[in-house]
Amino acid sequence: MTNTIAYVSRLLIYPIKSLNEVSTDRVTILKSGAIKGDRQWAIFDQSGKFVNGKRNDKIHKIRTKFNLETNKISLNVQESEDIKVFDIDQDLEGLSNWLSDYFGFPVNIKQDLDKGFPDDTLSPGPTIISTATLEAIASWYPNLEVEELRRRFRANIEISGVPAFWEDQLFTTAEKTLNFQIGKVQFLGINPCQRCVVVTRHSQTGEADANFQKIFVTKRQETLPHWVERSRFNHFYRLAINTQVPNTEAGKTISIGDELRLT
Predict the structure, then answer these.
(1) Nearest of 75, 260, 236 to residue 182 by alpha carbon
(2) Which of 51, 105, 176, 225 is deepest in the core (most CB within 10 A)?
């Protein structure tokens, strides 16, 4: 590990789980530890299961723009200019009908204002990755750019000013947590995030890369920092850090430029 100054360079919110991100300059922490507005809505089928990238690759071709101030969302299908706009507070039924028509089966959208719908319900805090890590991974794949990897891994907080995989120091053994701080917000680092099939697919088309996971696992093992807590890697298909945030931090904000400090 090197003596560097880690700082927040990007903040990304995903208002509807599995759909496009919104870049913002500041986020607010909820009592649950989640970021306000992140994965606040999710799409469900009639059996109550998520309609997401893990279960339906058609979701990759939906393009969205979400206005965090008005909660209006515009949608279109990749390569289509037919754009529909919905006020998610006033016309949730209309949005659900559009999505049902697209997927070919009935769906509905649910909202959770307290925690959202994180993949890791035990650690609903924001996920963290460094820009240098994304750049390093891009070098493993000749046809992938950093922005495409950013869309695949879907982290909330991106940090700069540090070398690749610096964030791998933000967790410790399974029975412990690691304390750190971003701006004025206290964090608990939990574990390196286990990845799923979604990151093997192109974020815009859903096209699968059969070799992505094999290359990733091989290179991740090769480049794993010597000081990392290796007991947390039962396999090497892990990237970005899952976190918890104590409820004492509710209402605090994180902004672009805030420093990340180990405590």
Answers:
(1) 260
(2) 51
Q: What does the domain layout of the chain look like in residue ranges?
A: 6-36+117-262, 41-111
139-145 long-range contacts, CB within 8 A, separation 24+: 140/215, 140/216, 140/219, 141/212, 141/215
* Cα separation, 75 vs 78, whole angstroms: 10
Q: How confident is the model at residue 2 (pLDDT cuts 50, 70, 90)?
A: low
| Burial of 8: CB neighbours in 10 Å, binned 0-12, 13-18, 19+ | buried
Tell which phi-psi region holds residue 179, choosing left (phi > 0), alpha (psi between -120 and 50) or beta. beta
The letter for the amino acid at 40 is Q
| pLDDT for the residue 101 | 97
Report the alpha-carbon distance of residue 95 to residue 10 in Å, rounded: 29
Cα separation, 184 vs 202, in Å, equals 36
Annotation: CATH topology of 6-36+117-262: M1 Pyruvate Kinase; Domain 3 (2.40.33)
